[in-house]
Design goal:
Layout (H helix, E strand, L loop, with lengths): L10 H28 L3 H28 L11
């Protein structure tokens, strides 16, 4: 088993985990944007916004996959 693998296959759990971490990071990045703006670093604030947008898109994609897999055998134990 490779490092980081649990041996527990559950696609729904994996998607939920990625979605959660993306949304959590996006929340944190909001503070980073404010910090950069308060420091007068608009280019850095812009970078943080780009990162935040990437996580927002990732969370939305997870949401689409979760809807698609909901109620299917491929979803794994979390959906049963």
């Amino acid at each position: 088993m490779a490092t980081g693998e649990t041996g527990f296959e559950d696609v729904m759990f994996d998607l939920i985990s990625v979605q959660y971490h993306s949304l959590k990071a996006g929340h944190d990045y909001g503070q980073y944007v404010r910090d950069a703006e308060n420091a007068g670093l608009d280019d850095v604030a812009g970078f943080f916004r780009e990162v935040m947008d990437g996580d927002s898109q990732r969370a939305a994609r997870c949401h689409q996959f979760l809807a698609k897999l909901s109620g299917t055998d491929q979803a794994g134990p979390a959906a049963q």
